[in-house]
Amino acid sequence: MTQDLFGELSPELIREHLMEGAVVLRQFALADAEWLLNDIQRVTTQAPFRHMKTPGGHAMSAAMSCCGDQGWVTDTRGYRYQSEDPTSGQPWPAMPESFRNLAGKAAVAAGFEGFEPDACLINRYEPGAKMGLHQDKDEQDFSQPIVSVSLGLPQVFQFGGLKRNERPVRVPLAHGDVVVWGGPARLRYHGVLTLKAGDHPLTGVCRYNLTFRKAR
Ligand code: SIN
Ligand code: FE2
Q1: Ligand 1 atom showing the smallest separation from residue 155 Cα
Q2: Distance from chain centroid for Cα 86
Q3: Which residues contact 137 (CB under 8 A, 6 or more apart)?
Q4: Whose alpha carbon is nearest atom 5 of ligand 1?
């Protein structure tokens, strides 16, 4: 803990450098976790979690929802951003203030000023769910970073190279951890290993991941 200018105790920022342009901010979202989880509940009451299909026709093991002006979707027609939820035909729920604030603060802490995400993908993993190595490349603006927030059960993140065959590093992510990657790391392959069974006091038997992007 450090004493700040106003005499209050504030938790020390734990920055773990991964590679150039990529950093893990340990427990960065911890103090906001309950707000974020409440807002996940609100957003997914409007735009319920669903298992989207890959272009190859397989259901993704992570359940997904979105909020913000743009939402990421996949179906047999491919991957893309769109402003409506395909399930309801309605616009995606607005991005909650708690989400926007946290994403901006995390980007600054990682060295990226002025991040204004217009899309947040919400992933929900239950034991057995995973996400294979992929690049986030459906956005129009690669000058902006990706901010990725972990809540609930721990899961191992894999952070690889700019080519799929480069061996990834494994980074265990816990409740409240935030990963930010941009600049030379923006198009690195990444994913998460299969979620192990567990029970978290705030989320029960799942992990949530919020992934903030500037899509347009
Ligand atoms: C993603 O790349 O969309 C999700 C990564 C994660 O769940 O940490
Ligand atoms: Fe991703």
Answers
A1: 8
A2: 21
A3: 187
A4: 191
Q: Which ligand is nearest to the CA of 148?
A: 1
CA of residue 113 to ligand 2 center, whole Å: 21
Distances (CA, A) of 39 to 47, 90, 107: 12, 19, 20
Tell me the CA–centroid distance for residue 6 and ligand 1, in Å. Answer: 36
Beta bridge partners of 169: 159
The pair of structure tokens assigned to 24 is 């893990």
196-215 pLDDT, tens digit per residue, is 999 999 999 999 999 999 99
pTM of the entire predicted model: 0.95
Which residues contact residue 26 at a Cβ distance below 8 angstroms, ignoring those fewer than 6 apart?
Answer: 14, 15, 16, 174, 176, 177
Using a 6 Å cutoff on CB, does residue 148 contact ligand 1? Answer: yes
* pLDDT tens profile 90-131: 999 999 999 999 999 999 999 999 999 999 999 999 999 999
Cα 9 to Cα 3, 6, 152, 180, 188, distances in angstroms: 5, 9, 25, 25, 36
Set out the domains of the chain in order of their start, with CATH numbers. 16-213 (2.60.120.590)
Taking 70 as the pLDDT cut, the residues of the chain under it are 1-11
Q: How far is the CA of 128 from the centre of ligand 1 (A)?
A: 15
Please choose, from the candidates 213, 96, 93, 200, the residue with its C-alpha nearest in 3D space to the C-alpha of residue 148: 213
CA 213 to ligand 1 centroid distance, Å: 12
